[in-house]
Amino acid sequence: MQRPRIVITGVGLTAPNGNSLAEFRKSLMTGVSGVSEFETRHIGKVPAGVCSFDALRYQNKRDIRNGTRAGSIAIYCANEALADAGIAIDDSNRRSTGIYVGITEHGNVETENEVHELGRFNNDVKFWNHYHNPRTVANNPAGEVTINTGITGPHYCIGAACAAGTAGIVQGAQQLALGEVDIAIAGGVSESIGTFGIFASFLSQGALAKHDDPTKASRPFDLNRNGIVVAEGGCLFILERLEDAKRRSAKIIAEIAGYAMNSDATHFVLPNHERQAECMAKAIEKAGMPPTDIDIVSTHGTGTASGDIQESLAIKTVFGGLSDEDAPLVNNTKGFIGHAMGAAGALELAGNLPSFEDGLVHPCMNLDNPDPECEIRGIVASEPAAAPNGVKTICDNSFGMLGINSALIVKKYE
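Above: the chain's sequence. Below: its structure in token form.
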């Protein structure tokens, strides 16, 4: 059975350096960092990617107070994406719209805050917030979107560590292909900077980035990288079947061409380049393309010592046999904004989508002294690069803890 073609018709995002695709793309092209100094409980000042979107654009103060930061991010992104797609939620579509939000973790922020506050009241649980349960259930960010928008179709979150942003897109595309929904709001969100635990854990692993200048702390593939910069953010896309999008004369931004997900099955945190390469190769194969068709590889590259090396090896495995003329250009987004965890893959895809129109590839940031062990042919550093034959296809990599890998192939709609 031939599956329907799935297209992207709207984008809504908030990143540490932009609250719309236009702002985000401009920052990526002009070297604007979204990383700043951030005070976190029990640790002190750390570099972090902090968003500054207007939550009151789509929520009132009471809803913000009762809900979560991840929920506010998701609500902002969902409403921005719907507006970008020219879709109003009403009785004609509220039942046939689904929400699929990738998350790295959820509930840590809310639980840590409640425990902290409880300590101020001699641990008397009568002061425990009665919204804690709905705040901490795993479907919270997606569920908050339904309450805000009146969408009555299915909603849930996909827990896929740092591969979650692309996993959300995969889930949305699959549900459209199966005919379960007619509109999918899909992508990922993260409120990670709100939990000191994630900073503390990376610090204890020796994987939390530090630098006198916070804008220079996140430096994937650079010889002087020293860890991860934690960031918050979100990006949700409107996905539709091509025939439905054409029927309503929608603006078509891109087409989902293929995807793959697999598991390393080897370690809690250390990645496996062989499985990563298999994931990329499978996604390209499912898209019905040879590797020579890929114009941009958007790397996961977190700035950790071993992670960047492993991904470099994976990219060489898939594309190393190509001629210089056929090899893709390679970039990275985390140097600009840090690691937005569950939102990372979705944000990184969004930042590359304008390349279909202008043929330019945004660079890596802070790649001043490339690590010889991370040598990747075609990597774009410092300044944007023009793709020799334009950009028609993007491979978006996302890899996460416990060895979950995803690769998403998106192509220019023609």
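The mean pLDDT is 97.
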